[in-house]
Design brief:
- It is built from five helices and nine strands; from the N terminus they run H-E-E-E-E-H-E-E-H-H-H-E-E-E.
- The protein is α+β, with helices and mostly antiparallel strands and 207 residues long.
- Helix 4 packs across helix 5.
């Protein structure tokens, strides 16, 4: 018989008051079990009442929030600047688990962005300079020429400065939803919502 927590959910939901702790538990399992990019998430933004979604990679998380990096002139960044309310969705098919997180985002400080940028490979740092993310290319050669131009400019692989238009965003959650696949589509869902007194309130959701 499957073990259950105090709410009658599978034991994998644990009995934790803090959703960050539960996220960390699920994420650690995903890093061991998910074959490709366990840190991949679908990021949804909305501008002028038109939503868009794309996959990005989680690079850091703690009680302050969830961090990803991108070009600040990209479509996602432009939409975030106009509407900082976004949603993330992690789906780990190998575990039959999903986590949705909603909140608002703000730009990380330069020190944090510099530290992460300098940890990237030389080719990735050059790519941040060369790609005008989301802009129209006349042809592929245009991008390849730009990459070579910046390789010529930054020949010292240990000294490639971070472009000012490239940084990170951090999402501060207001709610989490943890989802577990169930037989006959009778899934298990647990929601954490941030109350006015800044404590987390748990509730079960119907599948």
């Amino acid at each position: 018989m499957n073990q259950k927590n105090s709410l009658g959910l599978d034991i994998c939901f644990s009995d934790l008051a803090d959703p960050f702790e539960l996220f960390e538990k699920w994420y650690e399992v995903a890093k061991k079990k998910e074959l490709n990019d366990p840190n991949a998430l679908a990021l949804a933004t909305c501008r002028n009442n038109i939503p868009t979604v794309r996959m990005v990679l989680l690079k850091k998380f703690n009680q302050d929030g969830f961090v990803f990096y991108t070009n600040l002139d990209s479509q996602k960044s432009t939409e975030i600047k106009e509407n900082p309310n976004v949603s993330m969705c992690f789906h780990w098919k190998s575990l039959l688990r999903q986590i949705r997180i909603t909140g608002s985002v703000k730009q990380v400080n330069d020190e944090i962005a510099d530290k992460y940028y300098n940890s990237r490979s030389y080719e990735s740092r050059i790519g941040a300079w060369a790609s005008k993310q989301s802009s129209v290319l006349n042809n592929r050669e245009e991008l390849l020429h730009s990459i070579q131009k910046f390789k010529n400019q930054f020949k010292d692989k240990e000294n490639v400065p971070r472009p000012k238009y490239w940084s990170g965003w951090i999402l501060k959650p207001i709610n989490f939803e943890f989802w577990l696949d169930g037989e006959n589509r009778i899934h298990e869902r647990l929601k954490y919502e941030l109350s006015n007194n800044r404590s987390w309130v748990k509730s079960l959701l119907s599948p």
